[in-house]
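re: ur question from the group chat, yeah i did fold both. here u go
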Amino acid sequence: MKRLDGVTVVTAASTSVFVDNIAKSAVRDLPDIHDLPEWREGLPVALVGGGPSLADNLGELKRYKNIMLCGSVHDYAVRSGVKAKWAVCCDPDPIAAAYYQEPRDECVYLIASACDDAVHDALKGRRVVRWHSGGSDLSPQIWGADRKVLIGGGCTVGTRAFMIAMCFGFTNIHFFGFDGCLRGGQVHAYDLADGDDSPLGDVSEIRLGSPDGPSYLMAGYMMGQLFDFQRLLGRYGDRLSLTVHGDGPLNDLVKFLEDKKNGESD
């Protein structure tokens, strides 16, 4: 696995948007994520992204008791018969409300304090739990969170959900739909909601490992997510059992780190 330089990842909205959304969240009467009884649960968990490979693994996914949906995958998963315990959102853009047109009573919605009011409107009457997305240059006092839990992780909802799962006590983590690349020109297993037309930006063919190693078409944020996972797994991987359902850069990274741990890779 080689480091790729020159990749810049920027936030989806300005700092002022984050601050405004956080202030609005502060006045809502919501429980905080670290007050949930499952905060230290230690069973296997399936984290679900929206990559194209998800469509091939839905049957296996449905066998899991603990399922956590990440971002825009929610409605597709619900329509596919997936019964999730949690759904995570951290996108500050109001378009994120379109991800939750089919909310379910049995699902707990883990909504970052930086999310827009429109997300809360879409989830009115459902069980919503707040969490604070830390790790940025924003002062903890902005959240009113100087004594709260701030959850870091990286540049995507997938890396944040990974951290939430670890905070819950999960050590046996399974990834579904975490392709981290374009497949047949597709980014997701489904069409995004009308209006959710954020450009991919520059897409590059990236070859991992040796000159004859696998290559993938990746947008900048996909590379950013892979770097974040490399950092997180380097820090926490020794205490975790990780399985990626489907091929892709994350699967290669997990295998590389496992081989390195076993002394099979430099």
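okk and heres the other one u asked abt
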Amino acid sequence: MAAVRQHGWALEYADESLKKDKEIVMAAVKQHGYSLKYADKIFRKDKDFIKAAEGMEIDSPKIWFTCPELNYFDLTVEEQDLNSIEKISDAIDDIISGGESDSTAHLVLGKLGHYKNPHSNLDYLKMEDPDVDISDWTSENKGKLIENPKKGEVVFVYFYYYDHADYVLTKNENFNNICFEFKSFKDEAVLTRRDYSGFDLTANDASGGGEYRLEIICSNSQSFHGTPEGKDELIEELHDYLTTPKG
């Protein structure tokens, strides 16, 4: 009881007898609605538990699913504005500050296919709905999440992943099918559109992982990788690159 009151999803690891315990299950779903998927099936069809878990209309058709989540923030800077160690340091401080306050969250649907067929097979998605098969879902590639910088520009990227993100998809009267629009990032399909006419997509929680990363991309595709803690090394690498004569 103490565990599920603090983290409702802990119900997943409870003994089967506890997943049939009305008080334990109710405490879990009130703390974290998504945990209802781990309860005994008698509760998953109970309107009182559905209402407590979702906090929405009990007759709304819903699909619960999980997958990793990307959080990122990017900043484009002119090369001419990076002509000193101090200015490069300021740019990296700006990207870290922006990433910590203004990063956006995007579901990671799965690995991308071969370049001749660059669609995702949604292999990271785990669903909890007996009426929906993964083969019924489609996806559409809308290009790169972060475009290569133009000549004379440098793109700074701050990003991190959560291993486990819980979402609820709610169908509405306009629902016909499920087609996710995504963009590519690190050879993965990242969901970029959340507003669809046929369904609503709502985030519940995200946890696990969370290692912060920095990437610097130059216009000729040269890139540098590191962490906020190792930013001094990145500053030196970028400064050496920008001040070294090309050609």
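fwiw on the second one: Residues 67 and 240 are 39 Å apart (CA to CA). Strands lie at 62-78, 104-111, 126-128, 137-144, 153-171, 178-185, 188-191, 199-209, 213-218, 223-226. idk if thats what u expected
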